[in-house]
Design brief:
The protein is built from five helices and no strands. With about 80 residues, the protein is mainly α.
């Protein structure tokens, strides 16, 4: 696994999380609804598999289970 894998996986998780504040607060209304965003990785199996593989690495899996809430303002 590389740093690039981690960075890409993190953005994919945020992009496909329909409640991620970065996208819910800053995406222009009507351009991409939350349900479409939640399903976006279904059209890109390689990227979906990358995010899944990264999330199964023991240290990443532990961090994901213990990380702080992501409900704060992104900026």
């Amino acid at each position: 696994m590389t740093w690039a894998d981690l960075v890409v996986a993190e953005r994919l998780w945020a992009l496909s999380d329909k409640d991620d504040p970065l996208y819910t607060k800053f995406v222009t209304p009507g351009t991409m609804d939350q349900e479409k965003r939640a399903a976006i990785l279904s059209d890109y199996p390689f990227l979906r598999d990358l995010a899944n593989r990264v999330s199964t690495v023991p240290a990443v899996k532990k961090w994901l289970s213990q990380r702080p809430s992501n409900d704060q303002e992104p900026f």
